[in-house]
Design goal:
Distance between the termini: 48 Å
CATH superfamily of the largest domain: FAD/NAD(P)-binding domain
Bound molecules: flavin-adenine dinucleotide
Largest sheet: 8 strands, antiparallel
Shape: elongated
Helix content: 25-40%
Oligomer: single chain
Structural class: alpha+beta
Length: 434
Amino acid sequence: MAPTPERRDAALLAAGDPAAGDPAADPPAVVDVAVVGAGAAGLLAAACAAGRGRRVALLEKNRRPGLKVLISGGGRCNLTTTLAGARLEQQYGTERGRWLRHALRSFPPAALCALVESLGVPLQEEDLDKIFPVSGRAQDVLDAVVRHAVEQGAQLCLGAPVVQVARESTGGFVVQTARGACRAASVVLATGGLSYPKTGATGDGYGFAAALGHGLVEPVPALAPLRVDAPWLTALQGVVLDAELTLLGPDRRPLVTRRRPTLITHKGLSGPAPMDVSGHVEEHHGGCTLRLDLAPDCPPEALDAELVDGARSEGRRLVQHRLPRELPERLRVALCAQAGVAELTLAALRKDARRRLVELVKGLELRVDASLGFGAAEVTRGGIPLAEVDARTMASKRTPGLFLCGELLDVDGPIGGFNFQAAFATGRLAGLHA
Ligand SMILES: Cc1cc2nc3c(=O)[nH]c(=O)nc-3n(C[C@H](O)[C@H](O)[C@H](O)COP(=O)(O)OP(=O)(O)OC[C@H]3O[C@@H](n4cnc5c(N)ncnc54)[C@H](O)[C@@H]3O)c2cc1C
């Protein structure tokens, strides 16, 4: 049996145990650029800054860099996407996509792929425009980008949590770590958000940025499974649906629609479609309704006609046999029970019950108040306000010499490689200008 996502991540994290790993290293006393956080954004920022001949310290609290890269895509790393231009930008929403335009156009997915392949990791396209390493090993991507940063000349200091970033009156910064201080002319904050805190992302960067004059858009979990309080549904755990999901806000206005696989779990709904809508649920602090079209390829009239026809041609069979074949049998049985037609024959199905059943299949409504939270979220929505950061350089508009990039910023994308793409593209710009 395939391991649950939680077990799989735990196994991957154990392989990259942050407390184990490489020896801790003291930071150098003085550098040109201190990069805080060796995730996707920080690794590329450090490589690019070092590649320009800057003396770079890459300060990482864990004794292993890039734990999120390691566990990404179920250990396979969905590095990026084949989408480009306007279609790529739209994935981040209108305003944030526009803000990201320069980063994405100067380092589009094709450039990220070219870089990673040049580092010896062949890539391939898979379903839904996703790019993965051919080896299917996130570790290969991680090893390559870490090696790249080090070969470019960045000094990787592991086990060196940064506790304070202070600006000196003479210009420049003192970056205080648990292993000593590091003076730097520029600082790149690449500390990630709050999602999956066991990887090291515990929101430290928000405090560092606040001390240097930045605000914060309330961080909420995104790309997390949804909690649904419907025992009849969660009893179907393990069932996979090809449903179209529409999330309605507290005022019942449609917020987002997704048609991608949905997995019923013992806590609610997981898989790409529910995870993609979870950030909206959290932004609204719950009170949302999830409407599921369980048979998106079958119009309601056709479904109704099918049941009418069934009553004529095979009236003695149970109603569930005439529901769309693509619905798993356990779900068909449960839907009939929900519609109050369990154990009913097609011939005995009255018009009002038939309508109820069609409505359930085409528009099952579930109340959703929350996701499973930051512990299970793949990304953080919210963060450092984009208006406070120069979109062409990632420079802070509040503090000269400070740069911010990656998930720390108020930008996030859906499942599909969009979050790494944004992290690498913004990290690169920070490294080119810090
Ligand atoms: C389970 C899971 C699967 C995912 N799969 C994918 C995927 O397949 N494709 C995709 O595009 N995205 C995926 N994501 C999202 C993606 O991993 C993140 O958006 C991306 O890694 C963000 O990169 P980052 O460098 O900004 O932040 P992070 O990767 O979070 O890196 C931040 C780093 O900063 C360090 N740090 C934090 N505070 C301090 C401090 N005080 N001092 C020193 N260091 C500090 C942390 O330890 C960490 O190493 C996934 C996320 C998760 C959790």
